[in-house]
Amino acid sequence: MKKALVGLAVVATLVALGLPVLRAARTPPPDGPAAAPAVELAATDLATARTQPLVRTLEVSGGLEALDTAMLKARIAAEVREVVAREGDTVRAGQVLVRLDDTEAAWRLRQAEDQVAVADAQRAIAERTLANNRELVAQGFISRNALQTAESNLAAADGTLRAARAAAELARKSVRDAVVTAPLAGQVSQRFVQPGERVGIDARLLEIVDLRRLELAAPLAPADAAQVRPGMRATLSVEGLGSPVRGRVARLNPSTEEGTRAVQVYLTVDPAPSLRRGLFARGTIELARRDARVVPVSAVRVDQGRPYVLTAEDGLIVSHLVTPGERGEAEFGGSREAAVEIADGLPEGAIVLRGTVGALRAGTPVKLP
């Protein structure tokens, strides 16, 4: 009774002093731990583990080169009179592209033709002399030595005539060489001269490139080159092109490059409108193909003691220990990418998570697209 009266007195004193009275508020306990929110996944974060062709490939890279090119050079020393093509122009085989001044060549041809006429006249004289000497020898008016001299003179005249005719043909060719034509169809890639310039023999005039046949020259290590055979298919990605281009192994160089010991492999490339000589290409050669259960390489995680794969099953993430096998390339979502064979530990048709989703724990709720 005294204790109760004392307590009431204390409370009354606090109220009189204006001090707050503390009251214990009872908060009802929560029903349980809050549920973790589901992780929403995009279609690009997922892939299906299924049995399909696994392609074992070999990476190659290099520059594109035209199989057919032509460097037009001057065959005579002359002044450039006309150039009818520029870089990028399409030309046909036999089309006149450059005209050189043929004045000097034409005068040399006239001189050579005059020499042919002189040599022909001298031969005719030698021939008549020989015929007369034969009659005189038969009549006994001259000795046989004179006949032999006439025969030698005719032979010399024949040689002089042939030489004059050959010189005339060379002069005639020089006149023809003043007109430079395209040896093949293609496009002009470089123009080296302008009208009015004087060029010497073997001076470069134009370069023509035929883009209908392109090839990729790629160096390979000797061990890799031993696996490559002509006819193997290849898929190439060329800078500037949105879609890959196809190719085939055409041949391998029988010799290695000095210093690097690399073996050059040459791949023919299917023509495409945007392909150009000199573009850099990177791709793969298909070495072998077999069926296997595969997943993307990024789906196999190695941050624990054994490789494992995360799958989405019944709205939760499940971890599967797997045994990776051979690597190669396979089709996922309509495009080919790096893949790895899963020998065991993963069922057919499992929905696997790519490495793009980051680190997630088993049991995490997920929402599929």
Question: Could you characterize the architecture of this molecule?
Answer:
With 369 residues, the chain is of the alpha+beta class. Among the domains are: 40-55 and 290-367, conserved putative lor/sdh protein from methanococcus maripaludis s2 fold; 60-67 and 211-288, Efflux pump adaptor protein, beta barrel domain (Elongation Factor Tu (Ef-tu), domain 3); 105-164, Helix Hairpins, CATH 1.10.287. 25% of the residues lie in helices and 40% in strands. The chain has 4 helices and 21 strands. The protein has helices at residues 2-17, 103-139, 144-177, 222-225, and strands at 39-40, 46-48, 50-73, 78-83, 90-91, 96-100, 179-181, 186-191, 198-199, 204-220, 233-238, 245-256, 263-269, 280-296, 300-301, 308-313, 316-321, 324-332, 335-342, 351-353, 366-367. Strands 3-10-13-12-11-14 form a 6-stranded antiparallel β-barrel. A 4-stranded antiparallel beta sheet has the order 7-6-4-9. Strands 15-16-17 form a 3-stranded antiparallel beta sheet, with no helix packed on it. Helix 2 packs antiparallel against helix 3. The protein is elongated and about 135 Å long.
Summarize the structure.
By secondary structure, the chain is an alpha+beta fold. The chain is built from four helices and 21 strands. A six-stranded antiparallel beta barrel has the order 3-10-13-12-11-14.
Salient structural properties:
single chain, 369 residues, alpha+beta, conserved putative lor/sdh protein from methanococcus maripaludis s2 fold, Elongation Factor Tu (Ef-tu), domain 3, Helix Hairpins, 6-stranded antiparallel barrel, 4-stranded antiparallel beta sheet, 21 strands, disordered N terminus
